[in-house]
Amino acid sequence: MVTYRQLLAGDAGPYYAAADTWRATAQMVRDRADDLVAARNRVAGVWEGSAADAAYSKLTALIDRLDATHEALASLDQILVVHADGIKHAQAMVHDAESVAEGYHLRISSDGTVTSPDSASTDQLHGLGEVSGRLAMAVQYANDLDIRTVAAIAALLPAVAETMVAVDPTTIPREGADPRSVIQWWNSLSPAQQRWLVENEPDRVGRLDGVPAEARDIANRLVLERVDRQLREQSGNLRAQLDALVAQGRCNPEVYHEYQTKIAEVEGRLKGVEAIERRLDQGAGGDGRGYLLLFDNQGNGHVVLATGNPDTADNVATYVPGTGAKLAGVSGDILRADLTARTANLFDPTKHAVGVLWLGFDAPQSIVPEAMDISYAHNARDALSRFQDGLRITHDGPASHNTVIGHSYGSTVVGVTAHDRGIHADDVVFVGSPGVSVDHATDLGLNGDHVWSTHLGNDPIQGAHNVRSTVTQSLADIPRWGPLAPVGIASDFANSGDHLLYGTNPDAPAFGGQHFTAQDGSLSMHAHSEYWNQNKPSLTNMGYIVAGKPNEVERVKP
Amino acid sequence: MSRTRLWTLISALAALVAVVVAAVIIWRLNTVHPRSHTDGIANLDQAGPRVERYAAETVAEIPGSPQLHEGLRGVNPCNDPADHAPSGTGELAVSYDVQFGQRPDGAAVIAHLRAFWLSKGYKILNEHRGADTATISIENPADGFTLGIIQGTTGDLALNITSPCLAPGNETPVP
């Protein structure tokens, strides 16, 4: 039974440190299992007969045991980090109660008893009840956390002792299956079967919306590890081939350039992989353990990374990046997810916000011609809609407050998804948008009070007019303007600000959403990148929206 | 050629010239390199020590001898394709939890820092006081670094420091 005193004295640090240790141990076990697989395969090629078969079976059983142990140790890392986060959360609840007590001029003693002055007013008596209630909730939260952690660790013990149970791979739901049917299938499996799937079919299980985040995370870490090895091998091979060609005098400038391009592409992806690994290894810092919910190296590389466990979070912010987003540059996009979550958590430490970078699509890589093409958004809409459905379905306890933030072309992706497929979100936010494919907030299937938008002053995206309609309008106006036609055309272009490339500017009053303040972007022209500057209102306003504090958001006065 | 057709032709030519001029202006604006007024700070490697200096200077000014605990550090890219900034440029973003032995008076801390920052010639960027939260942010015009304080619902404070958009690593931007 956790007491008030114990709660206050609780230190999350050792739990984070223990999680780090177990994570490293899990990796070591995994490496040894890989070594054994290699050794077994080497022996199988040169040793035959019944003794060889027996040795092969023994080694296979040992590898299975190591795989099961790896899965259990990786889960232990998750459990300990969740526990550490929970301690901090319960302590934040106490601080919140202290803040309320201060407002009523009440005292909280070291054992958590709340007292009022002898001549307490009615208001103070009311406050006494409120503060006592808040403290009791914090202590209860800590106790529940304790029970959950003990139960989760106890449930891992059989995993180490039991053999995993194989599952017929043909029964795994296809990619893109409805998350509702996926979770039904997942829940129908025994823990031993689930563990087998995570260890043996990580590519398929890791990308299924509807599988709980904890299992997806372990599966995708395995995929990440494999891709890391492949990319290093590719890079090494390419460099060796190039060196050999140069040494043999067979390397002309064209071949050299071709190799350099290939090497840059492979090493760029490797840089992205390393950025993901760094974020996933982070945890002891207290920023929250990362959860890898999707990873592959296909197309431009696909990454869905959460800054904490979305299944247990109170607030979840899904960030969809825009033009230029890809595996090689994922580091900055991960930081944006972190900045969003941190800002929301700073505003309301009593609720746990998690940011999710959703790069589950191939984003356009150039403004012209690729970002002029709506097909990138069309290709993303099913996956984004399904991901948001999955967040709702796998969430533990009361539904989280879910926000989807689209930046630049990412806002078009969010708009197209919401309009064409529906999106499970309480709020959507568009920043630096070239239009969201609709002309009114309600066309997104959301109340206009929950559709937010902003542009920084100087953001060049605001020049992304729908040129075709503006030119058509200008030509139609020429006879009317007569000799002053150039003035008329200039006027048409100047007044076309509400008609962006992909529909009405979501900032515009006619759009029917909430236009919040940002700031003037830098004149040195990186304004389109500045929405996540932590000292400017675009980010603080997003933090308020994600934290579920709409009344705190600074709106632009019409 | 009728009078109307002539005007149409002239107008179309004028429009074409206007579009070309606008495009050139936009292109010029879009190819400006990272901020040049950074008081000797040219790249992200150099930004780190400057951030530490701001952090130390700020925390020393806050009554109650608080400690800073780093909660987040990273490079926020400012090379979106729409901005045409050189590859790898970014803002160094660092966020600290300001930890006190006892509960701080957030409003008093913010008022104190506000006066301190103004006395140093920093420019207020934004101030907001909500029902149970508050924010203030400033910019030092000499180097473009911004500092901000966030006060949350529980009264806890965080100090955010961000560099301007700078060249990567130890590179020196092309003038």
Q: Care to give the gist of this entry?
A:
In chain A, about 55% of the residues lie in helices and about 10% in strands.
Give descriptors for this structure:
heterodimer; A: flat; B: 175 residues; alpha+beta; elongated
Describe this structure in words.
- The complex is a heterodimer of chains A (558) and B (175).
- Chain A is built from 15 helices and twelve strands.
- The mean pLDDT of chain A is 89.
- In chain A, 55% of the residues lie in helices and 9% in strands.
- Chain A has 558 residues and is of the alpha/beta class.
- In chain A, the strands form three sheets. In chain A, strands 3-4-6-5-7-8-9-12 form an eight-stranded mixed β-sheet. In chain A, strands 1-2 form a two-stranded antiparallel sheet. In chain A, strands 10-11 form a two-stranded antiparallel sheet.
- Chain B is an alpha+beta fold and 175 residues long.
- In chain B, 34% of the residues lie in helices and 26% in strands.
- Chain B is built from three helices and six strands, in the order ααββαββββ.
- Chain B has a six-stranded antiparallel β-sheet with strand order 1-2-6-5-4-3, with helices on one face.
- The longest helix of chain B has 28 residues.
- Chain B is elongated and about 85 Å long.
- The relative contact order of chain B is 0.20.
- About 6% of the residues of chain B have low confidence.
- At the A-B interface, helix 3, helix 10, helix 13, helix 14 and helix 15 of A face helix 1, strand 1, strand 2, strand 3 and strand 4 of B.
List the topology elements.
The complex is a heterodimer of chains A (558) and B (175).
Chain A lengths: L3 H6 L3 H32 L5 H55 L2 E2 L5 E2 L6 H40 L17 H9 L3 H10 L1 H4 L7 H35 L5 H29 L9 E6 L5 E5 L8 E6 L9 H18 L5 E7 L15 H20 L6 E7 L1 H12 L6 E5 L19 E4 L12 H15 L3 H10 L4 E2 L2 E2 L9 E2 L21 H10 L12
Parallel strand pairs in A: 5-6, 5-7, 7-8, 8-9, 9-12
Antiparallel strand pairs in A: 1-2, 3-4, 4-6, 10-11
Chain B lengths: L2 H28 L13 H18 L5 E11 L12 E10 L6 H14 L3 E7 L4 E6 L6 E6 L5 E6 L13
Antiparallel strand pairs in B: 1-2, 2-6, 3-4, 4-5, 5-6
